[in-house]
Amino acid sequence: MKKVKITVLKTTLDQELAREYGAEGLGPCPMLREGQVFYADYAKPEGLCDEAWKAVYQYAFALAHGAGEGLFYYGDWIRRPGVAICSCNDGLRPVIFKLEATGEEAVIDYTPVR
Question: Integer distance in angstroms from the first to the last C-alpha of the chain?
Fold first, then answer.
């Protein structure tokens, strides 16, 4: 299993939907910032939002297990091998992530909860 690099590409706010449905003063995600980098292995990286992890973990898992050697979805989605572009599930202020396969081996450096 390899580590996967997760980079925050963009934090967004859908102004139209925010005006109609958002709480007063709603802005882009307050938890993450553009350029922030995380490395995933067996578990959610420290500091990454739980909801964002739920939205991207299946891509991280696939890349960690060799999906990065080819293209996702038969080559009709992303043109670069070993890359996935995903977003969190927040419909008003989604955060866009780039996930990249790395050659670095993942190592369990914590005690799993049993």
Answer: 21
**Among residues 98, 101, 110, which one has the least CA distance to residue 37?**
98
Find where tokens 């739980």 sit: 50
pTM for the predicted model, two decimal places = 0.88
Give the CA dihedral 55, 56, 61, 63, nearest 10 degrees. Answer: 150
CA distance 14 to 83: 25
Contact yes or no for 53/38 (Cβ under 8 A): no
**What single letter denotes the amino acid at residue 17?**
L
Distance from C-alpha of 91 to C-alpha of 12, rounded to nearest angstrom:
10
Residue at 25: amino acid letter: G
Per-residue pLDDT of 15-69, as tens digits, reads 999 999 999 999 999 999 999 999 998 789 999 999 999 999 999 999 998 876 7
Which residues, in sequence order, are CB contacts of 46 under 8 Å at separation 6+? 38
